Amino acid sequence: MTTRTTAGHSEAQPGPFDSRALSTIQITVFAICFMIAALDGFDTQAMAFVAPALGPDWGLEHHQLGPIFSASLVGSLMGALLLGPAGDRWGRRPVLIASMLVFGLTSLALTQATTVPELMVGRLVTGLGLGGAVPALIALTAEYSPRHRRASLIMLMFSGFPIGAVAGSLLSAWMIPVFGWEAVFLVGGLAPLAALLVVIPLLPESLAHLKARGADGKAARILARAGAPLDAAALHVEPHHRAQGSIRQLFEEKRAVGTLLIWTTFALSLLLSYFIISWLPTLMREAGLPVRGALLTSAALNLGSVAGSLVFARMVDRRGPHGILASAYLVGGVMVALIGMATGSMGLLIAAVAAAGFFSIGAQLCMAAVAAEYYPERLRGTGIGWSMGIGRIGAVAGPTIAGVLLSFGIERGPLFIIAGVVSVLAATCVWLLGQYGRRV
Prior knowledge:
Oligomer: single chain
């Protein structure tokens, strides 16, 4: 019997968790991955929280802030491309531990930065860890999820990212006026290092990876703890699963069109997301809001994205992703354009920002589940890593392009209209993915 997933990918054999209620070990995996995603979200957006205070403190102009915003995103691109495939080869768990060490220690070092080059190098290295963690988080959550709830569980886990950003914006609004911008990087460094005390003893390895390297005994013990029958330890692993997934395999077996469309959607939607995430507090501060008010718009954006991702993920599990996410991106484009027109009313501004987060960024977060479903287990880390890595090209471009346009004197209104058009282009790519990117 062949089962079709929401992304059109066919898998011949059910997983060991498909017909069972969630076990304690599965819940543990999801909770730990959620926690790491929240820490990742805090540290990824830390520079956006710091910028409204750091910019005036250091006398930085728009064209100087753009590259600083993009530095961590360049690092994230490199981390996703390098460490995503590493998870297929060496396991998700060691990649996650190494990633947390990198972004925790580097964030601590940034408390001592005194120049723009130091800040850029520090954020670049921080990004390596941040980008390396995400593919492993998504792959591990997917592998411990029942197939019929996979999109919802991935998005529930990945909602930790914007929730961490919400916590970061609220915490920063309190900390920066009292302790200075350095406090944001201090918390962003100490928290992941403390979290390793939970991750190292409690987080299990991917079952598929254990089977691929012949650790059948460990896989059987995990399945026993999950209450799965012991004969499920004979979890199917294709012979070529033992080799590291390669980029070439992402284009084999009728995956080429789908891979290209997924990459383009990630690039467009992350360009949009990181333009808004990076510049929103600074632009709202320049529009006349106090620092706390500007940071609250960031909280509204992230809360909206959490709500949107969870709503859309449930709909995707039931009806498939393409029509739902294309519609979300389309409506989100209108909401993004409205942000630039709503700065005269705080209530209207918060509503527009939250709606943009709900539709456009909520849809973007759901693309992680689409990529996880599209690729088989042996390629999942590579597929997600390269999707995220290509997407980070857009993420790097977004803040930099916005900084250049602002330096040329473009107003906020037209800038947000341009950003809305990017969301409409992402909607087109998702629709095309549904029409032409399905595997058969």
